[in-house]
Design goal:
single chain; alpha+beta; FAD/NAD(P)-binding domain; Alpha-Beta Plaits; Glutaredoxin; 8-stranded mixed beta sheet; 13 helices; 26 strands; flavoprotein; FAD-binding domain-containing protein; oxidoreductase activity, acting on paired donors, with incorporation or reduction of molecular oxygen, NAD(P)H as one donor, and incorporation of one atom of oxygen; FAD-bd
């Protein structure tokens, strides 16, 4: 019998990201997948700004950017006429270094994560099937079936199911997968096209609905709804040609298909992301429509949220009750995203005559005006970007009793530019991917604290801590080259600090506790209650 801290079942983006988190935390684990090779089919196609931030906690966001297309334009057509284009290069947020989506295939994402894990000595075990998973109060026993038919018994502290919609882990845990299939059927094709279009995402509405994405090697992906009478028939190139002819403004020939398939879309969510020592992440926990490209990104966020919590409990840094917060925080986000993507999808793929009229004739009139101002475009994209995700209802976050700032415990920590000497750095570069981080702010104006004041404030906070906390002091006026300078006070404003303040940030980049330095004693009490 083999013993390990964590068994990860499923090596898609969620499983691979969780592996990266646990490897960084020096936690022992194994990751298995039932497929013999990694899929080369490109399913999900986008990484959003918040996901890039989470990847860059490990310094790897650029690896993905180098393989994708950043800030790809979106062009929308209605009734065979051009309506509007959205250039994400013109969208700007004041609190992040990443402003638009990165178009990159899931196959490339998995390949990059696989390569990064191999460099750390971690290899996905394929094809290995989890046949039986049984838990007791002390751990979990899993029976694995190897490629040669042999069985292996593995004993672990926790199992995480990243094994998709038909999750063995979810079924073994006795968890429900609540929801249903959408009524529409869909078809997909990766083809070459004879057209002179811009290399961007195209959305066509009219007598149907179609999205066209640029892929590698001059291949385009077509995704569209299909007629109910055709649902039991495999799609042909002619099916796609007919739909293209009805939706595009000019004739376009399709040829040389590399992949065609039909599928149904589902919207489902597990009734709990945790059952004792068994957890769910990614598509095993929730499946969405592709509207907004939320599914894969959300699964990666699940992995980041769960990874540091598992590591903290396994090392005995925190009590096991910390793990309860995973379901509390992430399932609520799953529900919000499910509701949001449902609304977008139902409107775009509707067969309701009233909605069809609004979509095909009213929306094209409103959209150019509504999206003509960059601020409106940024506001519309903020939900999709996942930068606004927060966990204010979580029992493991908070703020001091007198804190009146806009940011609260559970919010994402904003990013902004700072100076250390002559070197430009960012707030997020000060944060640890494997540890909590404490930022002390001097405040702005006459009431700002000196560097010595911040040092005195820091001292009692760092006593009796089981694990190191990264600390940084950010000032608005500095005479020393090694201090971190926010010369114009913009980062102070992002965090809501005019007076001296502090913020304790979790390894996933969310605020655990925030307040003014005048109420610093409340953080000491919080630290003791949370057993930090």
């Amino acid at each position: 019998m083999t013993n390990v801290d964590v068994l990860i079942v499923g090596a898609g983006p969620s499983g691979l990201m969780l592996s990266l988190e646990l490897a960084a935390q020096k936690i022992s684990f194994r990751i298995v997948d039932s497929t013999s090779i990694r899929s080369d089919k490109s399913r999900a196609l986008v990484l959003h700004p918040r996901t890039l931030e989470l990847l860059n906690r490990h310094g790897i966001a650029q690896d993905f950017i180098d393989r994708g297309v950043l800030n790809m334009m979106v062009r929308i057509f209605a009734n065979q006429k051009f309506v509007f284009e959205n250039d994400f290069g013109t969208v700007s947020f004041p609190d992040t270094m990443y402003h638009g989506p990165l178009m990159i295939s899931q196959a490339d994402i998995e390949s990059i994560l696989d390569e990064l894990l191999l460099k750390q000595g971690v290899k996905v075990e394929r094809p290995v099937t989890a046949e039986e998973i049984l838990q007791d109060e002390n751990g979990v026993t899993a029976i694995l079936r190897n490629q040669d038919g042999s069985k292996e018994i593995i004993r672990c502290k926790y199992v995480v199911g990243c094994d998709g919609p038909h999750s063995v882990v979810r079924k073994s845990a006795g968890l429900k997968f609540e929801g249903a299939a959408y009524p529409q059927d869909f078809i997909l094709a990766d083809v070459r096209m004879k057209w002179q279009a811009k290399e961007c995402l195209h959305i066509f509405i009219g007598s149907g609905f179609m999205m066209v994405f640029p892929m590698k090697n001059n291949i385009w992906r077509l995704v569209c709804s299909r007629n109910p009478s055709e649902t039991d028939v495999e799609p042909t190139l002619e099916n796609f040609q007919q739909r293209i002819n009805k939706l595009l403004p000019e004739p376009t020939e399709l040829f040389d298909p590399t992949w065609m398939t039909r599928f149904k879309l589902h919207h489902r969510i597990a009734d709990n992301y945790r059952a004792g020592r068994m957890f769910l992440a990614g598509d095993a926990a929730h499946i969405h429509s592709p509207a907004g490209g939320q599914g894969m990104n959300t699964g990666i966020h699940d992995a980041v949220n769960l990874g540091w919590k598992l590591a903290s409990v396994i090392r005995d840094d925190r009590d096991e009750t910390l793990l309860e917060s995973y379901n509390i925080e992430r399932r609520r986000i799953g529900q919000i995203l499910l509701q949001g993507t449902d609304k977008i999808f139902e409107f775009m793929a509707t067969t309701n005559p009233v909605y069809l009229f609004l979509r095909n004739y009213i929306l094209p009139l409103i959209m150019p005006w509504a999206m003509s101002i960059p601020g409106r475009r940024a506001l519309a994209y903020r939900f999709v970007s996942e930068l606004g995700i927060r966990y204010r209802q979580s029992p493991i976050v908070g703020q001091t009793s007198t804190w009146k700032g806009a940011l609260k415990g559970g919010d994402r920590a904003p990013d902004g530019k700072l100076l250390r000497g002559d070197t430009e750095i960012t707030v997020h570069s000060l944060l640890g991917a494997c540890s909590h981080s404490l930022l002390l702010f001097s405040g702005i104006g006459e009431n700002r604290a000196s560097a010595e004041d911040l040092r005195k404030a820091e001292s009692p906070l760092l006593n009796d801590i089981k694990r190191p906390i990264l600390t940084s002091k950010i000032t608005t006026s500095s005479l020393q080259s090694n201090q971190i300078l926010d010369s114009e006070g913009r980062v102070h404003q992002l965090f809501g600090f005019t007076a001296p303040g502090f913020v304790l940030i979790r390894p996933d980049g969310h605020i655990e506790f925030i307040g003014s330095i005048a109420s610093l004693d409340e953080l000491i009490v919080w630290k003791e209650e949370q057993k930090l």
